[in-house]
Amino acid sequence: MISAVLTGVKKVEVRRVPDPQIHTEREVLLRIMAVGICGSDIQYYLTGRIGDQAVQYPFTVGHECAAVVEKVGGSVTKVKSGDRVVINPAVTCGKCDQCLRGRSNTCRNLLFLGSPGQLEGCLSEYIVIPQTNCYPIKKEIELEEATLVEPLSIGIYAVTLLKDYKAQTIGILGSGPIGLSVALAAQDSGIRKVYMTDKIDRRLEAARKVGALWAGNPDKSDVVSDILSRESLQLDAVFECCGDQQAINQAVELLKPGGRLMVVGIPNTDRITFDPHRIRRKEISIKNVRRQEGCIPAAVDLIEKRRKDIAFIVTHRFSLKEAQAAFDLVANYRGGVIKAVVRSRS
Which structural domain, as residue segments, surrounds residue 84? Predict the structure, then answer.
């Protein structure tokens, strides 16, 4: 089969690699149809690492995929050959203290698709994965839409973590696929006052499309003042979705006393800072959001029921052989990109 592999910083090559094989009775061979390029994929492309996870070249990234079941192991009952599926890219052990506490997203033995030292990613023609990671989808869902299930599940999970707080007024800093997913989940949960920011005009248009009361560009205006002129008592919660220090600072200023800062974005640096006196005096709670926990079915359900139309998030399309061009476009934010999808099959 062919696979798009990272071979160095800012280098992607399409290579012929061995076909994956089913090794256990509970595994499934998937024919990959479409893969969304994630911000974490881009960090590996640009720098070869995220924190202490460094790429050993060659390596295949990619974890947001839609596929068709090609073959199943002898004990597989969840899916069958020909089924269209999305996947949970996190393969967990189900036995450690975290899994047993319902925290599989922090599994002690977690293996994640496209993460160095864990599992090769899905920018290939085929992959093998446990049946428990497969979720059938209806034929009505376009395969490009299906690649959005994984980021949408993160948005749903992030909003779910706020349920006990009953937030009604929120900010979302960063209106890329994750920020838009948070906005969609917030709208679906009943939150109606949503303020969003981004540096790309097309993403601000998308933010308004998903229901933001206001959307602004921090490079063109003082977004903190603009939002607080509309919300004098400040915001209940802010979702930082771009991994940017400036956005972290803005979030602290936007939050009301007792507010919650939800850190969803992955920083490009090894350190971010907070003004300890500012967050102490306002008694701000900081919550890190680690991928998602059990929200894949909810994301599939949200799309299947057409409660929110998210197809517009996919703005660019490439073939597997065009993977280098896809990564280059997303890394440089060209063409007003929101989400680029690589099609393994037509």
Answer: 2-148+310-343
Size of the chain, expressed as the number of residues it contains: 346
Is residue 212 left, alpha or beta, with left meaning phi > 0 and alpha meaning psi from -120 to 50? beta
Q: Looking at the 3D structure of the chain, how many domains does it have? A: 2
Sequence letter at residue 198: D
Alpha-helical runs (H) found in 85-242:
97-100, 143-146, 149-160, 177-189, 201-209, 223-228
Nearest of 314, 309, 182, 196 to residue 251 by alpha carbon:
196
Which tokens go with 331? 């890394």
Query: Is 302 within the bounds of a domain?
Result: no
**What type of residue sits at position 184?**
L
Place of tokens 């909810």: 298
Residue 24, CB-side half-sphere exposure with 13 Å CA sphere: 7
CATH at 112: 3.90.180.10
Mean pLDDT by 10 residues, the chain (346 residues): 97 97 97 97 97 96 98 97 98 98 97 97 98 95 94 97 93 98 94 96 95 97 98 98 96 98 93 95 97 96 79 94 97 96 82
CA 40-43-84 angle, to 5 degrees, is 35
pTM score: 0.96
| Distance separating alpha carbons of residues 150 and 299, to the nearest angstrom | 8
